[in-house]
Design a protein that fits this description.
By secondary structure, this protein is an alpha/beta fold. It folds into two domains: 138 residues, 3-Layer(aba) Sandwich (Rossmann fold); 85 residues, Thiamin pyrophosphokinase, catalytic domain (Rossmann fold, 3-Layer(aba) Sandwich), CATH 3.40.50. The protein is built from six helices and 14 strands. The strands form two sheets. It has a ten-stranded mixed sheet with strand order 4-3-2-1-5-6-7-14-9-12, with helices on both faces. Strands 8-13-10-11 form a four-stranded antiparallel sheet, with no helix packed on it. α1 links the parallel β1 and β2. The radius of gyration is 18 Å and the shape is globular.
Length: 223
């Protein structure tokens, strides 16, 4: 059996929102760096297979470091139609044929950047790959789904489960979650938040639209 090919994408979002697995360098697979994400990777001892960005946030000495460690550098211009993250997705999916694409550093900082990343799967060119893409940070794992019936496995450190309709959705059913639904009609994009697993998995289905499913947890407060 062929092992699924995982490509990881690191965007230049706040490092304090990285999951422990990234901080401890426990993530398998090749990396594509997006703008400042390349510098973060290199400083952790990870050389990206591709570096993408306009690199306007890097100092000359930082850019020199990227050039020393990355053979394939794709320079974009600031005045472009695609974001650097979109360019990274295109490379990972079209050139590296990723079976799974995990994106880190894409959820914190500027809200306009986060929304742009969340809505990537609504674009027709990325929509067919929706189920391969995940956004991951310290508190959340976001997965995407096209119409069908699915079973989601609970992550051991997560408590909450949210079903987010990115579009209108027909006949959303939650079969074995704490708060079930039976063929619910979602007329507008909305987040059905704070649901929970009952066991180690949850099953859901829907007939049209695009869904994001978020497993999340609260952070321990020190005060």
């Amino acid at each position: 059996m062929t092992e699924n090919k995982v490509i990881n994408l690191l965007v230049g979002g706040p490092t304090e929102l990285w999951p422990n697995s990234l901080t401890k360098k426990q993530i398998k697979g090749d990396w594509i760096g997006v703008d400042r994400g390349n510098l973060y990777l290199i400083r952790m001892g990870i050389d990206p297979v591709v570096a993408i960005g306009d690199f306007d946030s890097l100092k000359p000495e930082e850019m020199s470091l990227v050039e020393e460690h990355v053979k394939d550098i794709r320079r974009s211009i600031p005045e472009k139609d695609d974001t650097d993250t979109q360019l990274g997705l295109k490379v990972a999916l079209d050139e590296y044929q990723a079976d799974r694409l995990d994106i880190y550093g894409a959820t914190g900082g500027r809200i306009d950047h986060f929304l742009s990343n969340l809505w990537l799967v609504l674009e027709p060119r990325f929509q067919k790959y929706a189920e391969k893409i995940r956004l991951i940070d310290r508190q959340n794992t976001i997965t995407f789904y096209l119409p069908g019936k699915y079973t989601v496995r609970k992550e051991s450190d997560k408590k909450y489960l949210a079903f987010v309709a990115l579009t209108s959705v027909k006949n959303l059913s939650l079969f074995d979650e704490k708060y079930p639904l039976d063929k619910y009609q979602v007329k507008l994009p909305m987040s059905l938040a704070s649901n929970e697993f009952i066991g180690n998995s949850g099953t859901f289905s829907f007939d049209s639209g695009i869904m994001a499913v978020i497993q999340s947890k609260d952070l321990k407060k020190t005060i």
